[in-house]
Each structure stands twice: as C-alpha cells, then as structure tokens.
C-alpha cells in the first residue's frame, strides 16, 4: 500500500507539473473530486480494516506481555524488563502513507464541499472589469445564489435566485469550458441587446449613464472617461475609450458561435436577440473586453456563481469589500 500511495502522489505531481507548465489544461474541480474519492477510499480502509487490525495486534501484545509477567512472577521474578507501552504505541501509530491519505480526507472533503456548494475564490487576471474589479483582486463567488449544482458536471439540481441584469457573474467560457470568465450580465433570455456607438441599449431603450470624470487605468497608464450606469436596480461604474472604433466582429477562430444568426453587426456596433436559456455578458471596461459581443451567448449550464466580494488585494488593501 505504501508503494501504491507513492505512485498516486507521483501521478498527482506529474498532473500538477504539466498543468503549471502549460502542457495541458487542468480542471481543479475534477482534481478536487478525484482527491476526495481517493482519500475517502483510504479513510474507509483505515477506519474498518487497518485501524482495527492494529488494535488487535496491540491487544495481543498486551495479552502476551501479561502472560509473560505472570509466568515470571510464578518463578519469583517480580522485576521484568521491557517497555510494553512504547511498543504498543508504535503498533497503533498510523503509517505515513495513511497519514497522507486517510488523514487528509476530512480537510479535502471540507474544501470540496465548501468550494462546490458555498463559496469559491477567484483571482482577477485581466482588466476587462475595470473599474469595478482590478487586476489582482481576489474575489469570492457565491456558488448557490443561482441554485445548487452538482460539482464537476455543473448540473443544477435545486433552483434559487434568478439571474438579474447587472449581476457580476463567473461562468465557464463557451469557447473552452475549462476556462472561467467574469463579466456583467446585460441581457436575459428574450432580450434585444445592442451596443451601438459605445452606448448600451436593452429592448430598444438606452441604458442611462452619468459622467463621473476621468479614471486613471494603471494597466494602460492612461486616463479614460468613467461613467455610472444603471442596469436593472443597481448602479455600477464603467469605462469607455473614445479613441476606439465601435466595430465588432465575431470570433471566427473556431467557426461561428451558436445562435450567431441572432446577431447583426454594423459599423456602429452589434445588436443581438438573446435565445432562451442564454445570457449576454459584457465587461465594464467596455472597449477593452472580449465578451458576448465577440464570442456569443452564455448558456445557463455554464454558470458558476455570482461574484460579490473582494476579500484581498495585496497591492491595495482598500479594495477589500463588497461591490456591485
């Protein structure tokens, strides 16, 4: 069993190493599920086989020592050498390969349940959600806000809150579901969403914005106009770049995206009719975000959860707190 444990850890190291160096893409949810199942098997083996076996051996040692002492006592020998208690503790001690498998099961199980059904941490890797979220923000995502989903297969089994316009959502990118994206929901199923001349329209109505002065974008080291936009019942901030062209073109690297026929592209921008069971996602950094305007709609089964809290930014502790 110790050899088997070593082989399993070697496979884990190879998997993590290949993932880190980019030889293949990893799936942390699947990895955590596998680790939970493997350590569960070791924990069950320890609980119902190895631990009782060690207990029997320890009891036999005590019984043998008692018989030895009794025999020596009958011969008039009252002092007997040997520390039987130390030997007993050594027999009962959990071997390293169980300590590093069965011993880790409760911790891995707690992390798996917490991450799968309650909250999951993410790190913001790009500036597509500036000024709401900055590069380096460590955020929490509520996994049960939109309903309880089975881990790994992401199938919803219990419904909860409906998706609302203005929510900041983490989802699996339709182009590669192993990659998580974070954007703002601007369109719900059945909506007509248009982004024309750097202005957002929902169902033919212009979404109101109010100028808030310039914002210094550290990633590009430029000042850009900042606005407050009211989408749904909440306000949030966004950036526009007046020097950017409003032209949009679908990402054709992997062919047309599903329901691309629902979208019309023009020199002014793009207008799309959102199909049932799908959402339209756009970044708050409107002219520096790869989003639904380019690669299409996000199906409901790709939802990961609702982002709601910055729990750390090591470069700026003032970032900690809730956001809209």
TrEMBL record:
It is a single-pass type II membrane protein. One of its GO terms (molecular function) is signal peptidase activity. The chain crosses the membrane at residues 28-45, 96-118. Keywords: Hydrolase, Membrane, Protease, Transmembrane, Transmembrane helix. Residues 98-312 form the Peptidase S26 domain. It catalyses: Cleavage of hydrophobic, N-terminal signal or leader sequences from secreted and periplasmic proteins. InterPro entries: LexA/Signal_pep-like_sf, Pept_S26A_signal_pept_1, Pept_S26A_signal_pept_1_CS, Pept_S26A_signal_pept_1_Lys-AS, Pept_S26A_signal_pept_1_Ser-AS, Peptidase_S26. It is found in: Membrane. Its EC number is 3.4.21.89. Its main location: membrane. SUPFAM superfamilies: LexA/Signal peptidase. Belongs to the peptidase S26 family. This is Signal peptidase I. It comes from Roseateles oligotrophus.
